[in-house]
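Data availability excerpt. The first of two example chains:
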Amino acid sequence: MNFPKAIKDYCSKCNKHTEHKVKLFKTGSPRALAEGNRKNIAKKRGYKGKYQFPAKVKKQTKKPTFITECTVCKEKHYFVIPKRMKKVELVAKAS
């Protein structure tokens, strides 16, 4: 899906509709001390092998999350398109 790089959206700080820059949200690095990682480290000691999670089928697509930034006051907020899609592309103009 093609999505515009700039949209006109409501800014709660400016209290009106202003031009917003759009970026695709990317997740940060996973936590080193999360429970699953700690179980793996504990299980790998000695000759026990890898900790086995129950088999889980993952979904192939994700709902895209965007960060919009107001060009007037630089306020940022998130929004999600509630449809699953494999590929999202930011383009200069919506076509």
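And the second chain:
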Amino acid sequence: MSEATKYRFSFGPWNISEGADPFGPEVRSPYSLEEKLDWYLPLGFEGVQFHDDDVVEGIDGLKPSQVTKRAQEVCQSLKDRGLVAEFVAPRLWFDPKTIDGGFTSNCATDRAYALDRCLRTIDIAREMDTPNVVLWLAREGTYIREAKNARVAYERILETINKMLDYDPEVNIWIEPKPNEPMDHAYLPTIGHAIAIAYQSSDPTRVGGLIESAHAILAGLDPADEMAFALAHGKLCSVHLNDQNGLKFDQDKSFGSANLRSAYNQVRVLEEAGYGKRGEFVGLDVKIMRTQKQSDSTAHLANSRDTFLHLVEKVRTVDRKLEQELIEARDYEALDAYTLRHLLGVPTEAVSSSQQPALAASGK
């Protein structure tokens, strides 16, 4: 039997937020990056996810030497705390030049800006000792279909990815798909789209995907199945675990908060595939409730990590022999009941009388 995976966890500094949303202002005071980094190890996290301007604030107004200096300072801050950078992502959706998208903008000047920002992100990633760059294609889409030629848009995304690969022979590009928000119609809305682009790229071995639970749910898909699809292609580079209460705005709830069984199946897919054995991180992208007090600004992170580890234990202690017997008997009702009771911590012997024949047949 192979050794059990010892999972490594990561989150980004934006996960410790002030609670502002489109309908209200901040409700908590901000913390500095250094203050946030101090909390990682005590919370059980060693990986830090970054946007480029999390590392280098005001990046567009700085000279290359200034960007390098600041990135080196932040990298040293990580080393001093026993932390590592998981990835760096260009924040392409805030700048006025990306109002109409970056890679897919109808303005050539804006497209050039987006590419340049990505290349500078690669430079930052080098200084942060990580080869990984995440592309969340936030505004790569359109509000109305007629405004852009979708075929050309896909070609422009691919062209940009290839230029990034050519710029640095060691960079890895992880595409994080999302079906909507902030755009009505997003290009590359699912992991299937992302993997298709990966195979089209000039070096498919260096292009993969990052799956966020909520993004899959917003596409009407099951996160566990999306993860399984990416794993089957060897393309699941990282995950952003969270939860989502239906097809609403991107809620980034704590992992398992809305659908514990869905969370269980995500953990099961990862555990059974050996995810994490090569050092992959279990990443979180979660928002704390706006009602939370300042003193509990990290509760959602601790809770999500704990839930993941509890579900790992549930996966590892499931009765595989009984599961297989019920599958072979095509008794999915009994399998459903057993799964629910296992999650609830109900002993097998306490199942309802309707389950007894199947359990008796299995020697339980």
